[in-house]
Amino acid sequence: xxxxxxxxxxxxxxxxxxxxxxxxxxxxxxxxxxxxxxxxxxxxxxxxxxxxxxxxxxxxxxxxxxxxxxxxxxxxxxxxxxxxxxxxxxxxxxxxxxxxxxxxxxxxxxxxxxxxxxxxxxxx
Amino acid sequence: xxxxxxxxxxxxxxxxxxxxxxxxxxxxxxxxxxxxxxxxxxxxxxxxxxxxxxxxxxxxxxxxxxxxxxxxxxxxxxxxxxxxxxxxxxxxxxxxxxxxxxxxxxxxxxxxxxxxxxxxxxxxxxxxxxxxxxxxxxxxxxxxxxxxxxxxxxxxxxxxxxxxxxxxxxxxxxxxxxxxxxxxxxxxxxxxxxxxxxxxxxxxxxxxxxxxxxxxxxxxxxxxxxxxxxxxxxxxxxxxxxxxxxxxxxxxxxxxxxxxxxxxxxxxxxxxxxxxxxxxxxxxxxxxxxxxxxxxxxxxxxxxxxxxxxxxxxxxxxxxxxxxxxxxxxxxxxxxxxxxxxxxxxxxxxxxxxxxxxxxxxxxxxxxxxxxxxxxxxxxxxxxxxxxxxxxxxxxxxxxxxxxxxxxxxxxxxxxxxxxxxxxxxxxxxxxxx
Lengths: 124, 434
Hints:
The complex is a heterodimer.
Chain A: E1 3-9, E2 18-24, E3 27-32, H1 37-48, E4 51-52, E5 55-61, E6 67-72, E7 76-77, H2 81-89, E8 92-94, E9 102-104, E10 114-116
Parallel strand pairs in A: 5-8
Antiparallel strand pairs in A: 1-2, 2-3, 4-7, 5-6, 6-10, 9-10
Chain B: E1 2-11, H1 15-26, E2 32-35, E3 51-53, E4 62-63, H2 64-76, E5 81-83, E6 87-92, E7 96-101, E8 105-116, E9 120-122, H3 125-128, E10 138-140, H4 141-151, E11 158-162, H5 166-177, E12 181-186, H6 196-203, E13 210-211, E14 214-220, E15 227-232, E16 245-248, E17 251-254, E18 258-260, H7 263-267, E19 292-294, H8 305-323, E20 334-338, E21 342-346, E22 349-350, E23 359-366, E24 373-379, E25 382-389, E26 398-403, H9 404-407, E27 412-419
Parallel strand pairs in B: 1-2, 1-8, 2-5, 8-19, 10-17, 11-12, 11-17, 12-13, 20-27
Antiparallel strand pairs in B: 3-4, 6-7, 7-8, 9-18, 14-15, 15-16, 20-22, 21-23, 23-26, 24-25, 24-27
Helix pairs in contact in B: 1-2, 1-8, 4-5, 5-6
């Protein structure tokens, strides 16, 4: 039986509890050191399927700025962050752009869209 | 030369200036103007493309540009005037504001109330007196952030970050995302000044080491930086002999603190708080110059933009009331002091309290990290109020509403932080991170 203990630093609130999560055969069995339910949920998720919001930029042509900031509408699996970044590195959009516009839909089949984080108007 | 008059003029179109202008308009100021140096509103938020903004203000997690967008839309949908690309040269007592722009040239505005909202600047290499040569490739983290996120330049490929403030941590991840190798973050203090969340998600996620208690003792390179020398420091921040080591790099980013950008206030003769670097203000955010208010990072450096918006709304409402002649006369302001354990408190003075006012909100920064603590108010030397805090970190502001009945008629108010006896039971929803 595979038993792994992960040290997890909680980030839910400023207290920042440090704790341990024990995983046996892919299932969380014990959590120690966390002092609230939010922290327990975070720690368990962080060990089994850590996810992160991804923010980066894509190229813009014809706009007042050369770059458009984009943000994932939901967190993506941590081990796919760089795949998302590589995908977005190849994306170029045309001004005008409105905040909230979808820049990439369903990135890499992860079910997560990337949206424009701001307006970019056409430069005269 | 144009000469115009306004009820309220906000100097700066970042989150503080926008929130102050909107609140002033809402509170009845008829003619409101925002003067912004950049070519667009939003201030520094426009380059902070990461998320984590607005949890308190909008109850959702936004990017910096996303947070700015909300306020820009509100300004657009109002009849507030906005002058972009316009630099204020002077704001003199009496409300005479001189500005210059490429389109309109020199302009003079008469303002009944002025809100300072110029934000802050980064401390530079000069401020931390790092020895060594002066090669290219040494940037403040915020300057690098603008290059990477807005202008499309990568300032280096092998990066060392000095200081563990949030901008430095955010830039460690950002440079990694853009293909640079971030070799390490060096922090002189024994603790990080960044949020735990940023240490986890910007450093640990990418295996970037954080060296606490380390100081840069030399920067090497003739034309371009080639590396730095780092040594351990002891608890007095003195270099520990024989601990020096070199790290090769082509880029050094400095994240070593922020200072309010108060040149206009200083020139106008504003009384400043030597610790915050911002103006001394009362609960209306009125400075020592009647009719001049201050909000946001020009007043004191905030951790969350949400607090900036909230504080700027106070300044904006007060500015509107002053413009209508409805702000209570200053009278004898009472001093509010930062005592043991507290580094800064804002406001630093209390003008006579208004009837019906139940509490006054104060913003604090702790002098050092502490565990469970008591925030205490001493009124004329007597303990008048205390509140439990589960944890205290200098990187996170403490925000507390102090009941007016506890303040009473005391002439001298002092706040302190003391270790809490035993384990604090009350969980206070304050200083939540973003």
